[in-house]
Amino acid sequence: MIKTQNSKLHKNSRGVKAHLGSAFSFFAWCLKLGICLSLGIWNLVLPSEAQAQEFSLSLSPPLLEIMLQPGKSITQAYEVKNLGDSVLYLKSFISPFAPDPESGQIVYQSLLSPGQQPEFKLNNANLSLNDTFVLQPNESQQLVLKVSTPQNLPENDYYFTFFVSHSSPGELLKKTGSSFQAQIGSHLLLTVSQAGEFDFNGQIARFEALPKITDLGEKINFDLIVANGGQALFKANGKIEIFDWLGKKKKEIILRPDNVLVNSQRKIVCLDEPCSFSSFWPGHYRAVITVFDLSRSIYFWILPTKLALALTIGLIVLKLVLDKRKKNGKHIIYNDMP
Amino acid sequence: MKKKLLIVPIFYILYSIFSPVMAVNMNSDSYKIQWGNVNMGGGRKTSAGYIVTDTLGQIAPGDYQSAGYWLRAGFQYIHTIIPFTFTISDLNIAFGSLVVGTPSTDTNTLTVSARGAGGYQVLAFENHPLKSRQANDIADTLCDTSLCDETNADPWTNNSVYGFGFNMSGDDIPVDFVDSTYFRQFADLESAESKQIVMSSDAVTSSSTATVTYKVNVSAVQEAGNYENAITYVAVPGY
């Protein structure tokens, strides 16, 4: 009986618990719903910050060098990749440029009339130059650029940049601020030549050692500018050789074979290391620059100037000390005299 | 025995017929050359008036003519064709509500990866000064000494000097950005000012990052409104 009573009690308690549990679950469900509704209303009422939109794009190859006969054409596939986490609206276009005669820096120009310069088009099935296309995050697009030269195009150098531009600026918060557009480019250096040969007219515009006199172990930097007065670009293939006063070669520095464009000059850097030299051996040195068949020599000194200065100061101080001691010595003798 | 002896010539004939044509389009991880014929010779041909230059073999004019073109992608001295990459961390900045005589600033970063190029440049320009819908301008700043422009930075610390300008810090920035107080104007396309160089290097770089700080300060006579402009950054590799 007790068992039955206990069972009944047990059943009743279980029932009460079940009722309580259901009530609690219902209450919890209402609480969750209330929180969700509150959050949703909160977000609707308060203005949300626009998420930062990033632009991150890669373009390959970074440079294209072409030699082409008039009346011919080539194609080159470029790969554009969206490396960021935002959808990008892009378009491609071509801009001609010329190098600044003094600095070699790029100066963009207007496109010439058809027939006066090479012609460009995209060979993509559904895409042309200046058309907008979309790249999702981590998506790539191949752009197949066709370059053609009209039959009567003058034999000359023509320089362009193939640009991919972000064409949709970000949205402002309707407050004072700036939106940003981005362009990334790859250069095309085109030489039009029927025979594949051209006049070479390069010059070493400047080759200097800075400074001309330096101390043991201190660097001498070489300043090198190469000029191109010819009909086509050339590469500054060459080297700097340094010889000591005995004519023994101490070092050879290879130049980075950068392109020197027509009607411009360019500061040339060295490949894999700075264009500099230092030595702990004093003497009169000679540096010889060779670029193609062009050659020039300059001279500089490495002297132990700091050491000499230290020794000189030391000798002066020593002399002063010795002189003072001599004087003191005479004083003592005189004082000791009766 | 005779049958066995025939196997070798038969094999040779079949191989000659079906062997892959040796590629005339040469590729390696440092360049890609497309030309009709390959003529590998030594050195570089020069004469008194002419030079034919290339770095891998040389083009004999006859062979060049038969193909009509010569092409190289990438840089000769870099052993892999590596993409050129440019990143802007944020494509829009907002200064919020401006308070007279209290400058507002905001920043973003520019990152360039030019591992496959000998150097790079980032150019910048604005379409016009900050302009409202009513065509009122917040002029580009002249800085404290009235000497800064799009090519020269100068200190801008006086809160009674008004305008819009930018400061840069980080890698490969112009040397006139001495510290965080030095500001420049943006090159103004509306005034036909030339694009300005804001980052540049002659070296191959795996990652160069610069932070741009934009600053605006308005006077009490500045007309109310929202002022906006568009700034374009152009990243190009070296040539």
Question: What is the radius of gyration of chain B?
Answer: 29 Å
Shape of chain A: flat
| Uncertain parts of chain B | 15-60
Contiguous helical run count of chain B: 2
Gap from first CA to last CA of chain B: 65 Å
Task: Give me the secondary-structure category of chain B.
Answer: mainly beta
As a percent range, the share of strand residues of chain A is 35-45%
How much helicity do the residues of chain A have? Answer: 10-25%
Which residue ranges of chain A are poorly predicted, with pLDDT under 50 across at least 5 consecutive positions? 1-11, 42-50
Give a quick account of the main beta sheet of chain A: strands, pairing sense, barrel closure: 6 strands, mixed
Give the name of the CATH architecture of the domain at 57-170 and 181-192 in chain A: Sandwich
User: In total, how many beta strands of chain A?
Assistant: 22
Number of domains of chain B: 2
Tell me the number of helical segments of chain A per DSSP (H or I, 4 or more residues long). Answer: 2
Q: Which CATH architecture of the largest domain in chain B is right?
A: Sandwich
According to CATH, the homologous superfamily of the domain at 57-170 and 181-192 in chain A is Immunoglobulins
Instruction: Please list the strands of the largest sheet of chain B in the order they lie side by side.
Output: 6-8-16-13
